[in-house]
Amino acid sequence: MEENMMKLHNAASLCALMIAAGLSFPALAQDVELMKGVTPAEGDNPLTEAGAFQKDCGWTIGMSYFGVNANTWTVQVAHEAEAAADANDCIEKFIQLDAGLDQKKQVADIEDLIAQGVDAIIVQPVTSTSADASIEKAVAAGIPVVLHTGRIETDAFTTEIQGGAEHFGKVMGDWLVDTVGNDGRIWVLRGLAGHPEDTNRYNGLVQALEGTNVQIIAEDHGDWQYDKAKSLCETLYLSNPDVDGIWSSGADMTRACVDVFKQFGAEIPPISGEGNNGYFGQWIADGFQSISPEYGPNQGAAGVRAAVALLEGKQLYKSYNYNPPGLDLEAAKQLYRDDLSANVWWPSELTEEQLQEFYGK
């Protein structure tokens, strides 16, 4: 006890001396809250150097999206990021560039941001390699890079916030195995081919199926889009409706597939989903079996906060994880909003005014 008190006294004395001398010291990394549920990754996870990217207020921050209009989730990510930037008085300009799912366009977008001399860059990669060289170029130019919504092959980025991925896919896969049984027959609805989030979520499903006799009887990409997934599920139903459960990689695909079964007047099989308001409404109304891993669009806001923390001179860990447990029906009931459209996603950090502006019926 006496030794601990002495350590506290010494630490307090050191702080007092630094303050008296006019010196400053960085906020501890654990004091920087990027987003609820986001925690530093375990293992070798170094901190950024204190003050390495610190700049006076009046920042320009750029963001390279893999595809703003890829689906309704990515649209909301843009809203969440812009709202977070607008709420920070030190951000003078927030530049959002849309790669439109084009790898070459993303390379050009990031190099354009570098040429404009932005103070920080936030990147959502199109593929695991599409942004690597450009990110390395940005960091070499002294520009911190925040990565989220997809892992890449280079580790040149400054900090990353990674949710979804294997954890997301395994949460759904484990639930589906428990629900359909060891010998179940399932469909697999994958996201955008080549996107790292699709690959990693699928790898999580593979982990969940190891050691079971669950059979994948159909597998295809619905690109996380409602229209494409609806057409895909119609084709699968007409060719082989005898399915015990559906592993859906999320976004708008679950809602589309549920609509297909209702269209044919068939019983909706157990199906995994994601935090979409329209899907929550279906789930509540129709009572089918489901689970919803959490993958909030407020990651857009978290990316902005990470960039801000670095420009304020704070230290961040190299890697952060966002791996919350899946939401059940009761949680969906708490989040669902009947006064908002099907296109809003949860959890969100948008204000009530913004929610009504973008998603009010």
TrEMBL record:
User: Which cellular components does GO assign to this protein?
Assistant: outer membrane-bounded periplasmic space
Q: Could you tell me where this protein is found in the cell?
A: Periplasm
List the signal peptide residues: 1-29
Keywords in alphabetical order: Signal
Please give the Gene Ontology molecular function terms for this protein.
Answer: carbohydrate binding
- Residue ranges crossing the lipid bilayer per the database entry: none
Cite the Pfam families for this sequence: Peripla_BP_4
* Protein name (Swiss-Prot/TrEMBL): D-ribose-binding periplasmic protein
**Gene (name only):** rbsB_1
UniProt domain Periplasmic binding protein: residue ranges: 69-315
- Entry similarity comment: Belongs to the bacterial solute-binding protein 2 family.
> Entry's SUPFAM superfamilies?
Periplasmic binding protein-like I (SSF53822)
